[in-house]
Write a structure and sequence with these properties.
Blueprint: H1 13-36, E1 42-48, E2 54-62, H2 64-81
Antiparallel strand pairs: 1-2
């Protein structure tokens, strides 16, 4: 009859390292697909006041197409002021 050990199993550090690389590769692939899009893609996080009403948005992520659009609209707004 074998006796079970009460020692906690220690994860193989190599497994964690491999998993981290898989995640990094997946993120890099996803970002390359998003940046290749001909459409602007972005994520806006709502900013809320004390009453939890949305009062503004924070741009958390925007692909190149989206960034170019907004930079162009900022230049247009600047020229409208002058």
């Amino acid at each position: 009859m074998s006796k079970k050990s009460n020692k906690p199993k220690v994860a193989d550090p190599g497994q964690d390292h491999d998993r981290e690389h898989e995640i990094i590769d997946s993120i890099a692939f996803l970002l390359s697909v998003i940046d290749a899009s001909l459409t602007g893609i972005g994520y806006l996080k709502p900013i809320r006041n004390d009453a939890q009403k949305i009062i503004d948005f924070e741009c958390v992520f925007a692909n190149n197409k989206e960034m170019n659009y907004f930079q162009g609209s900022q230049k247009q707004k600047s020229s409208e002021i002058i």
